[in-house]
Write a structure and sequence with these properties.
Blueprint lengths: L1 H4 L4 H17 L4 H14 L4 H13 L3 H15 L5 H10 L3 H7 L10 H17 L3 H8 L2 H4 L7 H14 L3 H14 L7 H8 L10 H9 L6 H7 L41 E2 L5 E2 L9
Antiparallel strand pairs: 1-2
Helix pairs in contact: 2-3, 2-4, 3-4, 4-5, 5-6, 6-7, 6-8, 7-8, 8-9, 9-11, 11-12, 12-13
Organism: Streptomyces iranensis
InterPro entries: TPR-like_helical_dom_sf
Protein name: Tetratricopeptide (TPR) repeat protein
């Protein structure tokens, strides 16, 4: 990413970097705010692959799957790699096209993925099977050497969880409980709610010990990040504003996302904006004739 940003003028690169840092910081807990920062970064430097990828993940996090797919396609076109293939397939699912996601699982691009990417693609394919009402096929799709392995990898908990959930859908409750327990055992980062699913299967109910007044007080106490920690990630935002716009670029460059292969039924593009010249003046971009 740093090398990509170095291709930009210094001030512009700093502004883009600040917004990208905020996207990464807010994506899990405040996806709507992360999305807004990503749109600023996109307006500033739409021809940087890292910006398109970040915009894609921010759109994905807020359920804007057509928009996310367009950004992922643009990033893939710029870099030539296939690592975004699984999340692109999941965008197809989000847009209500599981058959296309399933077709992507059989494409040659999958063979170019590393082991983690192939596991991710398997989970997406299983989800597509379930979307299509093929619950038993989803169970079979998830059965793999990675699932049977006792080694703990970053994707192990999620794979086991997906398998447990698929088993539960087809009525194999005892096996599902076993695999939820295995998922919990591997889930060191708390990326799944396997413990809650286990409790639900065991008939355990959790009761909030706090009275409503205490709960309200607890909700009001928000953690405050130390200024030093924030400054170690990014410099203070320009002019104290939430969103950082470049002072050196009046109207930043743009690169319209690639159109949907199937005719963009539901895909949303990015509105073209002016392209910045080296002197800091804006020039109108060329018009492109292509339009769960």
């Amino acid at each position: 990413m740093r090398q990509e940003l170095m291709s930009l003028p210094k001030t512009l690169a700093e502004d883009v970097a600040r917004n990208l840092v905020m996207v990464a910081k807010l994506l899990d807990d405040e996806p709507e705010r992360a999305y807004q920062y990503s749109r600023v970064a996109l307006r500033l430097a739409s021809r940087v692959a890292a910006v398109r990828e970040a915009a894609g993940f921010a759109s994905y996090a807020v359920g804007k799957y057509a928009e996310a797919l367009a950004e992922f396609r643009a990033a893939r076109r710029m870099t030539g790699n296939s690592e975004l293939w699984p999340v692109m397939a999941d965008c197809e699912r989000g847009m209500g096209r599981p058959e296309r996601a399933l077709a992507m699982a059989g494409e040659p691009e999958v063979q170019k993925l590393d082991r983690a990417g192939q596991v991710e693609m398997r989970m997406v394919a299983a989800g597509a099977r379930r979307d299509m009402g093929q619950a038993d096929a989803a169970v079979v799709t998830l059965q793999s050497p990675e699932l049977a392995s006792n080694s703990i990898q970053p994707w192990t908990a999620r794979l086991r969880y997906a398998y447990a959930d698929a088993l539960l859908v087809v009525g194999r409750e005892d096996e599902a409980r076993e695999w939820f327990a295995k998922a919990l055992e591997a889930d060191q980062s708390g990326s799944t709610d396997a413990s809650d699913r286990l409790a639900e299967l065991d008939g355990v109910e959790f009761v909030d010990a706090l009275d409503p007044e205490e709960a309200a007080d607890g909700d009001a106490r928000q953690p405050v990040e130390e200024p030093e920690a924030e400054e170690s990630k990014v410099a203070e935002l320009l002019s104290g504003e939430d969103m950082v716009e470049s002072e050196s670029e009046s109207e930043p460059e743009s690169d319209e996302p690639e159109a949907d292969d199937a005719g963009a039924d539901g895909a949303q593009g990015i509105e073209p904006v002016a392209e910045a010249t080296s002197e800091g003046q804006a020039a109108a971009p060329d018009e492109d004739s292509d339009g769960r």
